[in-house]
Amino acid sequence: MKRILILGAGSAGTMMANHLVKKLDLSQWKITVVDQHKTHYYQPGFLFIPFGTYSKEDVCKPKADFIPKKVEYVQQGIDVVKAEEKVVYLEGGQQLDYDILIIATGSKIVPDEIEGLTGEGWMKDAFDFYTIEGAVALAERLKTFEGGKLVVHLCEMPIKCPVAPLEFTLLADAYLRNRGIRDKTELIYISPLSEAFTKHNCAVVLGGMLTDKNIHFEPDYAVERVDGVAKKIISFDEREIEYDLLVSIPTNMGDSVIERSGLGDDLNFIPTHKHTLQSKAHENIFVIGDATDLPSSKAGSVAHFQADVLTENIQLYIDGKPLKEDFDGHANCFIESGNGKAFLIDFNYDLEPVEGTFPLPGLGPFSLLKETRINHWGKMAFRWIYWNLLMKARPMPGITTKMTPVGKRLPKKEKEELCLQEKLPEQP
Amino acid sequence: MPTREIAGTTVDVNEEGYFTNPDQWTEAMGAVLAQEEEIGELSDGHWKILNFLRQDYKEKGVMPTIRRVKNAGGIPTKDLYDLFPGGPLKKSSKIAGLPKPASCI
Ligand SMILES: Cc1cc2nc3c(=O)[nH]c(=O)nc-3n(C[C@H](O)[C@H](O)[C@H](O)COP(=O)(O)OP(=O)(O)OC[C@H]3O[C@@H](n4cnc5c(N)ncnc54)[C@H](O)[C@@H]3O)c2cc1C
To answer: Are the Cβ atoms of A237 and B85 closer than 8 angstroms?
Structure first.
């Protein structure tokens, strides 16, 4: 028996286990998944916890419910990968040999990277919402917030779900208005970027919203430290910003197991081929989801598109055939903007978000780069889709793995080229 | 491809003035570029950073990040900001005759 070993049973690892169990010859291949935790969190739901829209119970399910019966599940911390020996050591000493390794250990916040952040005031006046603990504690704190300076601070790129900090800010604006304390609150959004978002087209639209909602945007901000006693944050170029409540999106890094295994870059992200998802250093190691160093967004929707490509490439690799270069960086993200409305953006490595309709040309029902109520319902439906379709590797009707030019208002030349590549009839 | 003359020699640059061939760079050019970028006279502290960037780029083939300058070069990030104010990596890599860093944070 040969073994395919999946490290991590979060969004990406779970999808891969469900795909592969349907595709591989199980008389030849044993599939094993390792994760340290019992609970699978629906992380996109963390955004809604601080405002009381979701509770903790709304975002968790047992991981075991999503691991197919024919897949071996080992609940244990992963200590180190010895790539040259093709073996993984777990905490407690157990060894797992593999023929093919899929790394899906994700990324997580590392608040200690920011000097002073986890000192005085952490979880009292300064919170994150990227962990379940942070989101729940922040919900409690917001209940008693009566106005003052609310500062949302994105420390450093890349982060998972790059739209979440902006969504949080827009939702906070709506939340404070509903509680009647918006006029007593100064809302500030601080970013290391020069614009409100990484993609220019989208940054223009969202930047405009910040202005309209009287949210102060502080760009190009490289944080040096947080002073939890004086309650202010200080940048390397000595801009000091005071806060009463700080919501921080700290540095995101790959898990320390990647560092221990010598497989990552400075942020513990693994150098990965952009289009095939094979690791650059070892041909029998593949990487998916937030663990890669790819310039695509770190998002569940991206991991979903990657899983389609990777499933095919694993089969090709087993058959000794050349891998397909099919991953195009496709991302599809809803952006909550408050008051029951949302945006939707759909883009890839090469093309920025544009206006249009999704997934059906002209019909939608979703509108790209526009704020609508239906988009909001799409965002809320994503939780059901995540548990029932994505995690179980069931097909998503109408959604293609590669980004489609259909229904998008792209510049004419790019649209023609894309339609030609994808052999699509050209759309008006 | 654009070229320009620095300290009496013609070199290849991109549209934004970053070197496309770091081997064409000399220390004398670094001094001229530092004036252009309004950094002024280069001190030992500046040279420590510029030398690390050049050496690391040569070894790795990619521009180091600020985190790498700190971790591998042992240079506190605050120094980088104090010595090259207004876009530390952008300015230092331009003066060091290196390509534009992919991300500046
Ligand atoms: C606040 C927030 C909002 C978001 N909103 C959206 C959204 O709207 N849309 C969207 O598409 N995406 C969103 N995301 C991003 C999405 O959740 C992630 O991109 C996705 O979960 C990545 O999947 P992954 O499998 O790579 O990592 P994860 O799902 O994080 O899984 C990694 C797994 O590896 C395990 N692991 C790691 N190291 C070890 C070790 N040493 N030993 C054992 N186990 C280990 C972990 O326990 C974990 O279960 C959001 C994320 C956050 C935090």
So the answer is: yes
pLDDT in tens, chain B (105 residues): 799 999 999 999 999 999 999 999 999 999 999 999 999 999 999 999 999 999 999 998 888 988 899 999 999 999 999 999 988 899 999 999 999 887 543
Q: Which two tokens stand for residue A355?
A: 């206006």
A356, A342 Cβ separation under 8 angstroms: no
Q: Is the CB of A351 under 6 A from ligand 1?
A: no
Strands (E), A83-194: 87-90, 95-97, 100-103, 107-109, 126-127, 148-154, 185-190
Say whether B92 is catalytic: no
A74, A105, A304, best to mutate for ligand 1 pocket (most atoms within 8 Å of CB): A105
A266 CB within 8 Å of a chain B CB: yes
How many angstroms separate the CA of residue B13 from the nearest CA in chain A? 24
Burial class (CB in 10 A: 0-12, 13-18, 19+), A144: exposed
The model's pLDDT over A154-202, given as tens digits with 9 standing for 90+, comes to: 999 999 999 999 999 999 999 999 999 999 999 999 999 989 988 888 9
CB contacts, 8 Å: A157 with chain B: 103, 105
d(CA A256, CA A248): 21
pTM score of the predicted model: 0.94
CB atoms within 10 A of CB A57: 7
Other C-beta atoms closer than 10 Å to the C-beta of A46 total 24
Which residues neighbour A194 within 8 Å (Cβ) at sequence distance 6 or greater? Answer: A219, A220
Angle made by CA atoms A9, A11, A16, in degrees to the nearest 5: 70
Find the CB nearest A192 among B77, B81, B105: B105
In angstroms, what CA-CA distances link A135 with A37, A207, A333?
18, 25, 21
Task: Give yes or no for A234 touching B (CB within 8 A).
Answer: no
> Which residue from A74, A88, A64 is spatially nearest to A34, judged by alpha carbons?
A74
CA of B74 to the centre of ligand 1 (A): 32
Helix or strand (DSSP H, E) at A268: none
